[in-house]
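Trying the structure run again after the queue cleared.
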Amino acid sequence: MDASALLLALRFGDTAFPSGGFAFSQGLEGLGAVSGARPDTDAIAGFLTEQVRHRWGSAERVTLVQCHRGDGDLDAIAALDHDLDLSSFSEPLRLGARRNGAALLATHLRLGTPGAAAYRARVADGAAPGTLDAVQGLLWRASGLDEASAALLAGYQLVTGGLTAATRLGLIGALGAQQAMPALLATVAAVCAEPVASDAEPVGFSPFSDIAAARQARLPLRLFSN
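Done. Tokens:
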């Protein structure tokens, strides 16, 4: 990764960058309702590892990489976007992916990123769901981020977003989150080292995460949207 790509990844990965992800816990808020106990650091790390290995790596990452390779072909990207949306069994997580994608599109529209306005119009017309990873692949390519860096950045955001949600929920301290992060990021790196075939389809199986998201949606008081 050259200096410009590194700085671009740091910019997009900064929590100050307005991507809208702060409102989502990806089901983590419902973890206690599933396990019947307050999640500790090991439970949180296991929950995030499952998402990285068995959902993000084989589904969201696949779509992100293929949309990045689409090089602005909005028809091809919309088809991949639909495939990813249909592959998600969990309604809270599926709607969360759309809302995150919409937030990222809105930000890049304001920034003038090529393709943002046209794809946002497709989403508004119902021609594409606008899932987060499809939008990331489109916009990060248009911004000049290479494929490998884009995948690593998305995995990094998944991990840090989950740990930040756990911190906001009072399940883990800031130091505990940092202690859990190296192993989780190593998992991201290992997953990203796996090649993505041009005809690969998004396939994920993370039932524990899906159940936790469903339980979270029924909580009487919630901090996050999912």
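The mean pLDDT is 91. Worth checking whether this holds up in the mutant runs.
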